[in-house]
Design a protein that fits this description.
One of its GO terms (molecular function) is carbon dioxide binding. One of its GO terms (biological process) is protein maturation. It comes from Klebsiella pneumoniae subsp. ozaenae. Pfam families: HupF_HypC (PF01455). The chain contains two helices and four strands. By secondary structure, it is of the alpha+beta class. It starts with a strand and ends with a helix. The mean pLDDT is about 85. It has a two-stranded antiparallel sheet with strand order 1-2. Strands 3-4 form a two-stranded antiparallel sheet.
Length: about 80
């Protein structure tokens, strides 16, 4: 199952196969944070983990602009 996610203002389709389309209560993952790698949601994370990850990627981007593809995709 694919879901639409937004990362730094860019929307992408992400495969939820590895984390499941619904949570433990059977509710859709709408509004939940996921760690995404090469188009797959690898794990469900909390908001603090998501913000820490985005901050770390931004800090890496400040030093190595090629990291921007992880944050902003090819659109940037």
């Amino acid at each position: 199952m694919l879901a639409k996610v937004e990362v730094c203002g860019i929307q992408r389709d992400v495969d939820l196969t590895l984390v499941g389309a619904v949570d433990e209560q059977g509710q859709p993952r709408l509004g939940q944070w996921v760690l995404v790698h090469v188009g797959f949601a690898m794990s469900v994370i909390n908001e603090a983990e998501a913000r820490d990850t985005l901050e770390a990627l931004q800090n890496m981007f400040d030093v190595e602009p090629d990291v921007g593809a992880l944050l902003y995709g090819e659109e940037r």
